[in-house]
Design goal:
Rossmann fold, seven-stranded mixed beta sheet, 25 helices, NAD binding, malate dehydrogenase (decarboxylating) (NAD+) activity, NAD(P)-bd_dom_sf, NAD, Malic_NAD-bd
């Protein structure tokens, strides 16, 4: 097309900041990309180098700086520093290098950053709430939310972080990282998201003895006092941000399910450790078998393992005519005592429902270990959430493969060193028959007897939980229902690359996370409307109109033009 290019319309935003206040606010800072006109209006002349860069030039410079860092933890630190300076540049860089940078901004590198949080601390990442200051909680909450109608709050009490356990106030790091993924993968405006840590102390002796530890230096709050503290926080969310999604993250096993059950009918709440699994649904789809025909062994029955079992049980129940008890009978759960069965008595945690507890008639009074369970059950699905490295031995894997055409093996424990089995070993021991997904990234592995490579899917909930949250936010659902979650999981399963090519991964590449989560979000939105829990007014009628509408509402890392106005945004 010839002729003079037409000047594109550039969105203008009125802001009430000038000078250093603009440069020090990551929401508004554009660094070297401020135009001549903006520099004049906002008193920025002389505060910046003369040249005016484009966003692409800034991304190129930032990527070069990123690559110069010699370790992943230094790269993580660089990205955290960038986020504290310029949100648009930070997300633009991540958007262009998503697959490469995801393991650095989240698992496994973020776990190391959180473990060293007190030593790496530079500036606040969100809202820090502690019991000794409970009387001022409302004022602190309102200050953090001032002028913002939030879409998302991510909160952690830091007790069960990414396979490394109790990290106390360092839990703000996981809340912040989770919010980043919501923006990157679901287009949630970072100005409408808030990271929170409920710093209720820590039982981590190393932190308590660390002179640089920046959290509450007391043992963890428990019992009624803990519940009152959490109740007050959730009450403030319901009172002042009633339309936002509240995401609970990395709460300990004694609290995670209990808090979810306590609040899920009061507000739109979510815990992806418990509710966010979609990968098993995808694997079952690839085998072309029915979900109700599976025999599922879960090795490791903490928050994650129990959450996966509950989610799959509910998917069976909602997709078939099975009762909850009938669905639960398809599961065999193991913990440090072996198979969870009635004779364990008070060794069985209160969080485990009776329907998951096996009866003595099947097993006798002796403890049943993983290999014994595999031999007796002949499972179709083996899931590891134990943090017990190499627990899926060659004997265990070969025994499973004897009885199943396509064994589904998911060693999900993070970080990589705690993985229950190396994918290359599982692939070799099953002669390439296994469908494998892991909790951390692994390279493709050789397929025995061929020159093909089998792509290892990273079973990270970031391919589903941002979409579940997006659909809930778009619909302004009063609650996130089980059927909404199942609808999202089914949509993810439909997008499995292995459905078209068995040598491809069970899940889409994280580089496609934005597209995938939009589709998941639309499925959740549709289900919310069907169930009558959506409260958003004037929702588009057709799916195509909804897709266009939802896509337009996504926040994108693009610069806009600023105009100074004392009544503008701050």
């Amino acid at each position: 097309m010839s002729g003079t290019p037409q000047k594109q319309d550039i969105k203008q935003v009125r802001i009430a900041l000038k000078g250093a206040a603009v440069l020090n606010d990551p929401r508004w800072n554009k660094g070297s990309a401020f135009t001549r006109e903006e520099r004049e209006r906002l008193d920025l002349r002389g505060r910046l180098p003369f040249a005016v860069d484009t966003l692409e030039q800034q991304v190129e410079r930032a990527y070069t700086q990123y690559k110069s860092r010699e370790s992943d933890i230094l790269k993580n630190s660089f990205l955290q520093s960038m986020k504290s300076q310029n949100w648009t540049l930070f997300y633009a860089l991540l958007e262009r290098h998503t697959t490469e940078m995801y393991p650095v901004i989240y698992t496994p590198t973020e776990a190391d950053a959180i473990a060293n949080y007190s030593h790496l601390f530079r500036r606040s990442e969100g809202l820090y709430l502690s019991p000794p200051e409970m009387d001022g909680m409302e004022a602190e909450f309102l200050d953090a939310c001032e002028g913002r109608d939030l879409d998302l709050i991510v909160v952690s009490d830091g007790e069960a972080i990414l396979g490394i356990g109790d990290q106390g106030s360092g839990g703000i790091g996981i809340s912040s990282a989770k919010a980043v993924i919501y923006t990157l993968a679901a287009g949630i405006d970072p100005a409408k998201a808030l990271a929170v840590v409920l710093d209720v102390g820590t039982n981590n002796e190393d932190l308590l003895k660390d002179e640089l530890y920046i959290g509450l230096r007391e043992k963890r709050l428990r019992g009624e006092a803990y519940d009152q503290f959490v109740d007050k926080f959730v009450g403030l969310v319901r009172k002042h941000q009633s339309r936002c999604l509240l995401h609970f993250e990395d709460f300990g096993v004694t609290n995670a399910q209990r808090l979810l059950a306590r609040f899920r009918k009061q507000h739109a709440v979510f815990n992806d450790d418990i509710q966010g699994t979609g990968a098993v649904t995808a694997a079952i789809s690839v085998t072309k078998s029915k979900i109700e025909d599976q025999r599922i062994v879960v090795y490791g029955s903490g928050s994650a393992g129990l959450g996966i079992a509950r989610q799959l049980r509910d998917a069976m129940r909602l997709s078939t005519d099975l009762s909850e008890e009938e669905a639960a009978s398809r599961f065999w759960l193991l913990d440090k005592h072996g198979l969870i069965k009635k004779s364990l008595g008070d060794k069985i945690r209160d969080e485990i429902e009776q329907s998951f507890i096996r009866q003595e008639g099947e097993w006798g009074n002796n403890e049943a270990g993983l290999l014994e369970v595999i031999k007796k059950v002949k499972p179709t699905v083996l899931i590891g959430t134990s943090t017990h490295a190499k627990a899926f031995t060659e004997e265990v894997v070969r025994e499973m493969a004897k009885h199943v055409d396509r064994p589904i093996i998911f060693p999900l424990s993070n970080p990589t060193r705690l993985c229950e089995v190396e994918p290359k070993d599982a692939n070799q021991w099953t002669n390439g028959k296994a469908l494998i997904a892991t909790g951390s990234p692994f390279p493709p592995v050789d397929t025995p007897g061929t020159e093909k490579k089998y792509v290892i899917a990273e079973c990270n909930n970031a391919l589903i939980y941002p979409g579940l949250g997006l659909g809930t936010i778009l619909s302004r659902a009063k609650t996130m229902t089980d059927k909404m979650i199942v609808a999202g999981a089914k949509r993810l399963a439909e997008l499995a690359p292995a459905l078209k090519d068995p040598d491809q991964a069970l899940l889409p590449d994280f580089g496609d996370a934005a597209k995938v989560n939009l589709e998941v979000g639309l499925a959740v939105l549709e289900q919310a409307i069907e169930e009558g829990v959506a409260t958003e007014k004037g929702l588009p009628k057709s799916m195509e109109e909804r897709r266009k509408w939802a896509d337009q509402k996504r926040w994108a890392p693009e610069y806009v033009e600023y105009v100074y106005d004392t009544e503008g945004e701050r």
